[in-house]
Amino acid sequence: MVLIALSVITIISVVVAGFWWNLFVSILISILVISLHVILTPDDSESPYGALLNVVDQDGLSGGAYMWV
Between the CA atoms of 31, 36, 37 and 43, what dihedral angle is there, to the nearest 10 degrees? Predict the structure, then answer.
């Protein structure tokens, strides 16, 4: 209920203030930054602690790689 009320207040304030263009540009820049982050970051399927976690079993079940659930 609070989220709906805050959303309505936000939309009304954007309409009254008339800064649609600023909002649109900021959303586009946010999408661009997030997209670049997704493209440029390496694959997260390997743990950054790989060799440190791979001391218990050598069969790969408790190794350093993340396990898909």
Answer: 130
One-character DSSP codes across 7-56: HHHHHHHHHHHT-HHHHHHHHHHHHHHHHHHHHHSPPTTS-TTHHHHTTS
Selected residue with higher pLDDT from 20 and 29: 29
**8: burial class by Cβ within 10 Å (0-12, 13-18, 19+)?**
exposed
Helices and strands of the chain, counted as H and E runs: 3, 0
Instruction: Quote the Cα angle for 62-46-51, to 5°.
Output: 60
**Predicted TM-score (pTM) above 0.70:** no
